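Sequence only, no structure available. Ideas?
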Amino acid sequence: MVLDENNYKERLYAFKHQDWQPLIGLIPKIESTSQFGEVVGVEKDEKGIIHFPYFIEAPIVSKFLEIVYDMPIIIDFDWGAWEKGRKIARDEDCDFNRLDLPTKCKLITAIVRNDRFCEGALVSAFESGLILRILKSIKKQISEIVNKNCTTNHS
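Reply:
I predicted one. Tokens follow.
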């Protein structure tokens, strides 16, 4: 399932704290994973067909994909033309805490969708720490929203 570009912000901000837990719960597992994928080399099968390298994703990467589609936080938008997202993803010093929640979800969407056309892009985003940085920032933002709502409700 994917979110519609016209109302994804409202849908994302409507998620409750517990709705984010499957995704946030991956953080310790990601931190303890040392290899996120494996490249399988060029092979020639018994029929003489050559199979080029492809990635076998680690279970944590597959679980991540399952969760982002099930929640859903994948957004239907023109991610390929999103230059701002490219710049953010390439910036190793990017402070993800300065980005809003929809932008973080758009980044995840762009990475996941790009992997369909450029095999290994998602594994690379895990290995570089990009996915972990985004998830930690989402966790921080969700905690701040919950704390703000608790303070507002008790005032």
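The radius of gyration is 17 Å.
Hope that gets you unstuck.
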